[in-house]
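Contributing new records

If you add data, match the layout below exactly. Sequence lines come first and carry their own label; structure lines follow with theirs. Keep one chain per record. Anything else will be rejected by the validation script.
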Amino acid sequence: MKQADGWLWRLSLANLLFLYGPIAVLILFSFNASRLSATWQGWSLQWYRALWANQALLAATANSLLVATVSTLLALLLGVGLAVGLEGLPGRRQHQIEQAMLLPLVIPEVMMGVSLLLFFVLLHIPLSLTTVIVGHTLFNVPVVMIIVRARLRKLDPRLLEVAADLGASYWDALRYVTIPLLRPAIVGAALMAFTISLDDFIVTFFTAGPGATTLPLKVYSMIKSGMSPEINALSALFVVLSMGLIGLSLLLQRR
């Protein structure tokens, strides 16, 4: 039994190294003083300082933050409303709508990006940050719905019955009872949706137009012309930010 536990521990450690080893190397070389990523010449923060002087990267970062913020707010509005509304439907109909809403998470992102591109072209909608926001909202709504519905299933239904007995209307009970109890899940869903939107590349690639370059698209275009140490620094910052947001989201959902 102890020998089996030892093999499982070694296998788990190997999987962690395989998954997070390249990320650790990326973060390490973001502090490399050398312009060449293959050689180590000592510790330096010059590439982080160089990021602040790169106006193109700053503009792409601003676009990414704008898209992530607006798409997260829209996804919260639609996802929370959908999650709460589904609880009042019959079981079979509830299941059918829920399965339909999960399609954006099931189909490949390439198919979603192509279908959104064709949709905007058919409607003669020019590609811009607005179309990127629409695409990000589409795949963020199911994420918010799943997280909020998981929290809804844990709520005691007798609380709403007590509120009704005390004279509260449906909207009063929703405002003063349901939403406060869902607040940790809502905040966690918002952080998760924001992180997913911030990191998305494929859907953004198909729905972005001129002047709508987000940070993942900008990094991709820079890599094609050669690996710059600034990309290491930028990627390290985004890895830390993404992992921090996901960790905070999971922590809030457990409360």
